[in-house]
Amino acid sequence: MKLNQWNYKINLRSILILLLFFLMQPMLYAQTFADAEAFERRGETQRALEILYRLAETTRPENNQYFLIIDKIISLETDIPKLLTSVEDKILRIVNVDQRIQLLKKMAVLMELSGNIEKAGHYYEMIYRLNSSDENFIYLIKAAAINLETGNIDKALSLASFVESRARRLVDLQKAKLLAIYIDILQDNRDSALRKMSQILDNKYTEETLFIIYKLSNWHDIRDTREKARSIIIRTHNQRVLDELNIYQKPLSPLFLFALSETSVVDSRPITYHAYIQTGLFSSLRNAENMRERIIQVGLPCKIMETPRSGEIFFRVVVPVETEREIENYNLILRNNNIESFIIFN
Asked: Does 146 lie in the same domain as 67?
């Protein structure tokens, strides 16, 4: 009888210990946003991301910390496909529209800088749909330029026409008109393009618009507007400005032409190169430095460029190039060393 009682007490004690152990598991293993930040400060990005991804699954969207978690994931994650599959739907769950827009802007910039411009265009459209204010027409213009760059001319023209019909700021209105002119040129409607550019130059226009009209006219040999724009530039500026515009002998992409690309960055110590080969974009300086070391080890020149955007600093790792031969040779070296890259203009 006493033995049975003793066994009963042991079993009860064992059950209580096991129960207590399981109840303490969440306390033992639960990690907080502060823990993720601590790992980030120590340079342990992957450990930080593991915590953040778990928190993103367990935190309710209406919780204010949910936004901070998703924002931090976007800042730290360098695996773009993983970022898209794990974060995109979570952004749409955020209740606060301003916070949702803020994250969409950051995602759009990341997509554009990483070469996924079609996805960037999708995010820019979403931003305008969430807040259709005058200040956000620029995002529709960006989306139009991206659609034009990816070959969706009808969509690009539709977005540009929408902005042109509703925009009140001169800069938005003229960018929309210039996109329509660019489409006219692509579709060989040169008379229409000539008429529209002449109308702009006969009225009020921005300096940027003047320069774009000159470039378009020069590249596509539309002589009337080229000479008209040329004479205005010489009269209001000088020959040096004109010479700088003549550097680019071939048409750039719509994003570069209309100064909409996020890859137009001024380095703190500028050196004149014709172009850069981008090999990576990071929110962590340490990750950027690791990529730079990897490129230097294969024998190529490399630099890190800071890209400020919406209060965030991104670090672009680039290889400067000056000739087409360098572009071909450097790209071949990078590919042979399993380093992805794409060309950007300075």
From this structure: no
pTM of this structure? 0.67
Q: Is residue 264 in a domain?
A: no
User: The domain containing residue 66 runs over which residues?
Assistant: 9-95
Q: What is the CATH number of the domain that holds 164?
A: 1.25.40
How far is 30 from 24, CA to CA, in rounded Å? 10
Residue 268 lies in a domain: no
181, part of any domain: yes
pLDDT tens, 199-236?
999 998 888 899 989 988 988 889 999 999 999 999 99
What is the spatial distance between Cα 190 and Cα 3, in angstroms, rounded to a whole number? 103
CB-based contact 181:197 (threshold 8 Å): yes
Q: How many CA atoms lie within 13 A of 220 on its CB side?
A: 24
Query: Which residues face 275 on adjacent strands?
Result: 321, 345
- Alpha carbon distance 120, 88 (integer Å): 12
Going through the chain in order, the beta strands assigned E by DSSP cover: 275-282, 303-309, 312-321, 342-345
Sheet holding 303-309, edge to edge: 303-309, 312-321, 275-282, 342-345
- Tell me, yes or no, whether 119 lies in a domain: yes
Closest by CA to 150, choosing from 99, 177, 115, 189, is 115
In single-letter form, the type of residue at position 74 comes to: I
